[in-house]
Amino acid sequence: MKANDFQAWLKTTPEYQTLVFQHGERLFVQRDGEFEILTVRLAYRAWSKQQVNIDQLNNMEACYIEKKKQVEACSALVGQWREK
Fold first, then answer.
1. CA-based diameter of the chain, in Å?
2. How far apart are CA 13 and CA 18, in angstroms?
3. Which of 3, 19, 52, 73 is the most buried (most CB within 10 A)?
């Protein structure tokens, strides 16, 4: 699935048409789990690293949101305690 996501992304770039012109149907051919065309292989590796960073940021954001909710709940309890 990850390779399919990469291919979909690459097709949205301005360079895609040039790559198709240069390599034709071979553009996304894979051998031994890697893209045969060096340019595509390098782009895939860079894209994959970017995806790892995006996943990490999304996890950090989810953690931040959860912690923020916990802090807000604690603040509400402190506010209630002070009112008594």
1. 75
2. 10
3. 19
